[in-house]
Amino acid sequence: DIHSDGSSRMERILLYSFLQSSSNCEFRDQLQTLQGQWIFPVAKQVCHYDDDGDLQTDGNRSGHLQNGELVLAAEDMGNEEIFRIIGAQLAEIGDQLDKEIQARVVNDLVQHFLNENLSREEITRCLSQAVEGLARAIPSDMEQEKALLVLAMVLTKKVANRVPSLLQRIFSTTVNYINQHLHTYIVRMV
Questions:
Q1: What CATH number is given to the structural domain containing 180?
Q2: How many domains does the chain have?
Q3: Which residues are CB-contacts of 110 (< 8 A; sequence separation ≥ 6)?
Q4: Which of 21, 33, 85, 160 is a plausible cystine mate for 167, CB 3.0–4.6 Å?
Q5: Whole-angstrom distance, CA of residue 147 vs CA of residue 152
Q6: For residue 149, is it within any domain?
Q7: Where in the cell is it found (predicted)?
Q8: What is the pTM of this model?
C-alpha cells in the first residue's frame, strides 16, 4: 500500500502537481478525488497531541488543528510548495513532449492497465519499458533522468485521459516507478 510508504510522498506530490498543471487534462474530477486519497491522506494517519498541543501524525508530519482543519508545519508546507513548483515546471516540458508520443504506445499501456490479472510488479515493468522505449525514440537535449521522469508523467496523463477510471492505478504505478528508478534524481533536483 502506497500510503504506508512515507518515502513516496514527494513523488506523489510531484506527480499530482504535474497532472494538475498539465494542459488537456480531461480527468480533473478524478484528480480532485485523488488529492484526498493519495496526497493528503490525513484520515489514514494516527494522530495525537504532543505536550504543546500540536497535532502529531504517524507520518512524521507535525501540525495543529485550526478551526477544525489540519495546519501543517512550515517545513512540510515549504517542501510541498517546492514539489508543486517543480511539478508545474515539468508539466510545461511534458506539454511539449505530449505530441511526440504515439497513440499505439498509450493504447498498449491502457490495455495493460485494464488487465487486472497483472501484478503490481508486472504493470510497473510495462510502464518502465514504455518510458525507456520513448526515451530512446524521442530525441531530447535534456538529461536522461529528467526525460524519463517527464515521459512517465506524460504517459500517466495520457492513459488517464483515455480511460479516467484508471487514474488511481496509473498514478500508483507511476509513483512506484519514480520511487524505484528516479528517487535519487528527485532528491538532487530539490
A1: 1.10.437.10
A2: 1
A3: 159, 162, 163, 166
A4: 160
A5: 8
A6: yes
A7: Cytoplasm; Mitochondrion outer membrane
A8: 0.78
